[in-house]
């Protein structure tokens, strides 16, 4: 139920807070007063767009939705992190003049699509344009499924689960078929490549290491000479001058001086450390010179190994991900090994998947057939229920057929549902879109909603129905009948109706009047809740355009008769 609504700066409504009742609320007012703006505001809570020209500097709508009974909605809001207070959640929608839109549910910002999905599960808006829903096969099928929820619901859920598994499995089979085809094309190639890599046994970075080694071998003589000469310069040879001997002299001088001035002891320590480093460096150079192997055999061996590994990269790189180095080749070989493991198990897995697919198709056929049988059984019951309501809506001779025909498989089954109407005896049953006039279509839609509402088992989660001039194109007894059926629908739902007919408004338990004010060259509207006397005056205006004593008497009688379900259908105002 929608407990509160506030509309600010939407069209001619500057700031209004309609106080809807829990049952049937009628919204009336003079033409241009802004009745439709109330529906526009409600539609905004469902994610509908607002014409930029209808907003002021910024339009805002906020409403409080009672969550009692709406278990799925309550669960979704809990997952969203939305806050509720005493079982009510605040929904806010803001639209700026330039068309930017923001929405919040329970203080949590949400996309407009999420707003529509969540609030739309509890609020349904029917306008003249929304009657097109009755023209669409999918909407008609969904209406049938709602009507027969107890029998159709579990079967529909079962079918969807099987359908989803079939789609998942079908994609898996396609992947496995591609994998098996790739195995046939690449399996031998990958095995040969991996065997050759194992035979050569290259090491990561070996190609770069070999190139560096060859560079040293090609300059072995020069490198050895340089190392030996550097070692001689550091330590000397045959008592010749060298860095080491000069450093020894310096150490002796500083050691002698430090005996007189201890301040030089630190410098002496560094010189002695330097002498040790110099000896180690000279030893390293000598070992380096001794270790250089300049023999032709070493060069040849290094060249042969380098040729072997570079040939391996050249031959296998294109088939292993375009590897250009030994490191890349080894990385690609690990991926190739994993691919081979997948290849080896693909055919077995494919066979199992195909077998499951066969069994799944059988189960899906059975589920679809059971679903179709349940829909066909429910179709007859829905048709009779709607016909029964149409009798009360001044269409006593109308005949409705709910046709369940075959359709290509879809997640919700293999049925195409069509509502076929014969408005009077002798007429052919045709789709409601072509068989019904605008007024008749409104009544068929109302009859359907009443039938669906009567079939609901959970009466706590009362939905909210908003009807925008559902009575357009009708009058007299038909208008009175529409009011009566809206009154009945309100027994199981909250019903909000924008109407221009007193016969409809008189059946409401709450009556709101949209009042237009013009001042300072501008026009704005407010919403006023009417007491009994206020209702009588408004009904009188709607009946005759004035509030004469005769019109007031007629309005009073109409209101009294509407409050009495046993009252005659021939109330004042009949035929208007």
From TrEMBL:
Query: Where in this chain does the entry annotate a coiled-coil region?
Result: 343-377
InterPro entries (UniProt xref): DNA_recomb/repair_RecN, P-loop_NTPase, RecF/RecN/SMC_N
Which SUPFAM superfamilies does UniProt cross-reference here?
A: P-loop containing nucleoside triphosphate hydrolases
Instruction: Give every RecF/RecN/SMC N-terminal domain span.
Output: 14-517
Q: Does the keyword Plastid apply?
A: no
Q: One Pfam family this chain carries?
A: SMC_N
Keywords carried by this UniProt record: ATP-binding, Coiled coil, DNA damage, DNA repair, Nucleotide-binding
Q: Is Ribosomal protein one of the keywords?
A: no
Family indicated by similarity = Belongs to the RecN family.
Q: What does this protein do?
A: May be involved in recombinational repair of damaged DNA.
Please state what the protein is called. Answer: DNA repair protein RecN
Q: Which organism is it from?
A: Brachybacterium halotolerans
């Amino acid at each position: 139920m929608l407990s509160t609504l506030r509309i600010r700066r939407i069209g001619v409504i500057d700031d209004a807070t309609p106080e809807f009742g829990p049952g049937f609320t009628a919204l009336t007012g003079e033409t241009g007063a802004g009745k439709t703006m109330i529906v526009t505001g409600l539609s905004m809570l469902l994610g509908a767009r607002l014409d930029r020209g209808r907003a002021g500097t910024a339009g805002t709508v906020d409403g409080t939705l009672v969550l009692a009974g709406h278990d799925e909605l309550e669960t979704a809001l809990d997952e969203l992190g939305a806050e509720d207070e005493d079982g009510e959640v605040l929904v806010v929608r803001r639209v700026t003049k330039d068309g930017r839109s923001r929405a919040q549910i329970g203080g949590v910002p949400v996309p407009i699509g999420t707003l529509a999905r969540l609030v739309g599960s509890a609020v349904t808006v029917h306008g003249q344009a929304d009657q097109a829903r009755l023209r669409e096969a999918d909407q008609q099928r969904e209406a049938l499924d709602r009507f027969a929820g107890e029998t159709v619901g579990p079967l529909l859920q079962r079918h969807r689960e099987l359908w989803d598994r079939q789609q998942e499995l079908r994609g898996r089979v396609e992947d496995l078929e591609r994998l098996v085809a790739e195995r046939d094309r690449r399996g031998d190639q990958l095995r040969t490549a991996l065997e050759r890599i194992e035979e050569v046994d290259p090491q990561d970075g070996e190609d770069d290491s070999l190139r560096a080694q060859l560079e040293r071998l090609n300059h072995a003589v020069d490198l050895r000479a340089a190392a030996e000469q550097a070692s001689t310069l550091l330590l000397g040879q045959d008592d010749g001058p060298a860095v080491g001997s000069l450093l020894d002299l310096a150490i002796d001088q500083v050691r002698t001086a430090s005996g007189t001035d201890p301040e030089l002891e630190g410098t002496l320590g560094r010189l002695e450390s330097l002498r040790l480093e110099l000896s180690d460096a000279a030893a390293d150079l000598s070992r380096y010179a001794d270790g250089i192997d300049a023999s032709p055999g070493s060069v040849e061996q290094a060249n042969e190994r380098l040729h072997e590994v570079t040939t391996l990269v050249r031959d296998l790189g294109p088939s292993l991900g375009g590897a250009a180095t030994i490191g890349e080749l080894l990385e690609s070989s690990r991926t190739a090994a994993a691919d081979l493991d997948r290849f080896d198990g693909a055919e077995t897995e494919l066979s199992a998947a195909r077998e499951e697919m066969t069994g799944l198709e059988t189960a899906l056929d059975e589920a679809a057939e059971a679903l179709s049988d349940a829909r066909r059984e429910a179709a007859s019951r829905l048709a009779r229920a709607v016909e029964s309501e149409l009798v009360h809506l001044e269409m006593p001779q109308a005949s409705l057929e709910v046709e369940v025909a075959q359709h290509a498989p879809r997640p919700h089954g293999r049925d195409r549902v069509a509502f076929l109407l014969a408005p009077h005896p002798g007429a052919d049953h045709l789709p409601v879109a072509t068989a019904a006039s605008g007024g008749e279509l409104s009544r068929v839609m109302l009859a359907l909603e009443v039938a669906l509402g009567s079939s609901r088992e959970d009466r706590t989660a009362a939905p909210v129905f908003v009807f925008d001039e559902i009575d357009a194109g009708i009058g007299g007894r038909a208008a009175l009948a529409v009011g009566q059926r809206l009154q009945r629908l309100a027994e199981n739902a909250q019903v909000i109706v924008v109407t221009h007919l007193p016969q409809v408004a008189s059946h409401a338990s709450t009556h709101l009047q949209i009042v237009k004010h013009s001042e300072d060259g501008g026009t704005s509207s407010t919403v006023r809740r009417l007491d009994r006397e206020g209702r009588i005056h408004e009904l009188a205006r709607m009946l005759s355009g004035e509030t004469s004593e005769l019109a007031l008497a007629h309005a009073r009688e109409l209101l009294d008769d509407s409050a009495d379900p046993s009252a005659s259908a021939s109330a004042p105002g009949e035929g208007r």
